[in-house]
Amino acid sequence: MQQRTKIAEEIARLGGQLALEYSNRLSSLTIEDKGPQDFVTEADKSVEARVRGLIAEAFPDDGIVGEEDAPKPSASGATWVIDPIDGTANFISGIPQWCVILAVVEHDQIQIGVIYDPVHDELFSATRGQGATLNGKAIACSVNGRMDRGSVGTGFSNRTEPDASLQVIRSILAEGGRFFRNASGGLSLAYVAAGRLVGYIEQHMHAWDCLAGQLLIEEAGGQIEQHSAIHMIENGGRVVAGGAGAFEKLQRIADEAYGPMA
């Protein structure tokens, strides 16, 4: 896995560099609507193709699941889960809050998580049992980060219920907290791992958006709701994560707003 992690970091950087080149010519990009507030660009497709090609070159027997193309079955037991550009709405609007996400799943567990923000050249990386880093330096979740002393990341999409999202925000405010929404769930999860946010909560996320960030948080000493990685790949699911000072309250808020996790 250490070899895969090193290569995953290199691939994320290469994918991010390609995405950054596209971001410098936004006016000429082809943009398609997948649904309300859900977009895909030629940049997403090109970056995913590049990332898939690099993975296949390095590990030809590994499986690949990506947001923009058909899954490739695994012959090795390892599957890469990728989002070429998480935060496409930001990307096409020139907002510098988007990232490239790579995760590796094996034995129904997330083994590697890499999130790269090319705009700020920040590479978040974790290998199971090896801790989490930002640009090679160890990071840790906010240990004493109570909700009334920090901000909670939250997300919502056309797959979530508006009333439930509003209830989550009201509950965060009632606890004395503040909510943070940057339209990139993956980057927000990385911010939790780095101690910038005290937690994160969302009713439904796809695996390519959340798996890498969940491992980063675990390896940074935080807590996450445990899921089968395979189930998340197939169905997605709710995501609650945070440091010790916020996690249990966020779980309660999620249960009250979304209903108990099945």
Structural description of this entry:
With 262 residues, the chain is α+β, with helices and mostly antiparallel strands. It has two domains: 2-138, Fructose-1,6-Bisphosphatase, subunit A, domain 1 (Fructose-1,6-Bisphosphatase, Chain A, domain 1, 2-Layer Sandwich), CATH 3.30.540.10; 147-258, D-Maltodextrin-Binding Protein, domain 2 (3-Layer(aba) Sandwich). It has eight helices and 14 strands. The chain has helices spanning 2-23, 42-58, 88-93, 162-174, 185-193, 207-219, 229-235, 247-258; strands at residues 31-35, 38-41, 63-66, 78-86, 99-106, 109-117, 122-127, 132-134, 137-138, 151-155, 178-180, 199-205, 223-224, 237-242. The chain has a seven-stranded mixed sheet with strand order 3-4-5-6-7-8-9, sandwiched between helices. The protein has a five-stranded mixed sheet with strand order 11-10-12-14-13, sandwiched between helices. β5 and β6 form a beta hairpin. α1 packs antiparallel against α2 (42-58), α4 (162-174) runs antiparallel to α8 and α5 runs parallel beside α6. The longest helix is centred in the first third of the chain and has 22 residues, at 2-23. The two termini are 31 Å apart. The model has no long low-confidence stretch (mean pLDDT 92).
Helix content: 25-40%
- Summed over residues and divided by their number, the pLDDT gives a mean of 92
Helix/strand-derived class?
Answer: alpha+beta
CATH architecture of the largest domain: 2-Layer Sandwich
- The count of helical stretches stands at 8
N to C succession of SSEs: HEEHEEHEEEEEEHEHEHEHEH
